[in-house]
């Protein structure tokens, strides 16, 4: 579905990503991990078409991202950013309905019955139907994150991009978000998610893309990426890796140091 080939990009003269290549197949759940400043947010911006390549190419279903119109791209790709825009003055239901706009015809001004039906569906799916009449500014951090996810799902995308959707959330809400993403992925939605929590990445993602200092360090199954040698090297700290008894997946633990 997504192919990144020899991608270099950044902001102005500052190159953040250097010669990155990997691909994500339809239906995969891929986690992007790496230390702060490694380029995780930048790769999401490049895949979404918000940041043009300075070198290389990003393609979606065989077409370069830059060659797909903004509206057509919004129908296929939905993005949940790390730092959402200022809290909008809408109710939850009104806010989620905005996700239907890419599907509107040229002169359409109001939502259709189909738009309302899909909005109902994604509110139910994300467990926020009871919040439909609440103002977005009245929501907690976890509730607001679910509303942003619901708006993205209302676009009915084939690819969902998320930049640290569990940031600033307690462990309960982190697991709630990841379990929901896993259920969506089980229904054939392709997902690329940036995560700081290596253990959540291991438990829920099928493949991991590990970035370090703007370069690709490792791509593969969590067992291939989350090794003591690689994580100690990339994060420049001491960790140990243990096998989760229920899944046999690797779990990362810091080593106590004085």
Short structural description:
It is built from nine helices and twelve strands.
Distance between the termini: 47 Å
Strand content: 25-35%
The multimeric state of the shown protein is single chain
Could you spell the SSE succession in H and E letters? EEEHEEHEHHHEHEHEEHHEE
Describe the structure.
By secondary structure, the chain is of the alpha/beta class. It is built from 9 helices and 12 strands. It has helices at 40-47, 70-76, 92-97, 113-126, 141-154, 171-186, 198-204, 222-225, 228-235; strands spanning 2-11, 14-24, 29-33, 55-60, 63-64, 77-80, 159-163, 190-194, 207-212, 215-220, 239-243, 250-254. The relative contact order is 0.17. The mean pLDDT is 92.
Jot down its keywords:
258 residues; alpha/beta; 4-stranded antiparallel beta sheet; 27% strand; globular
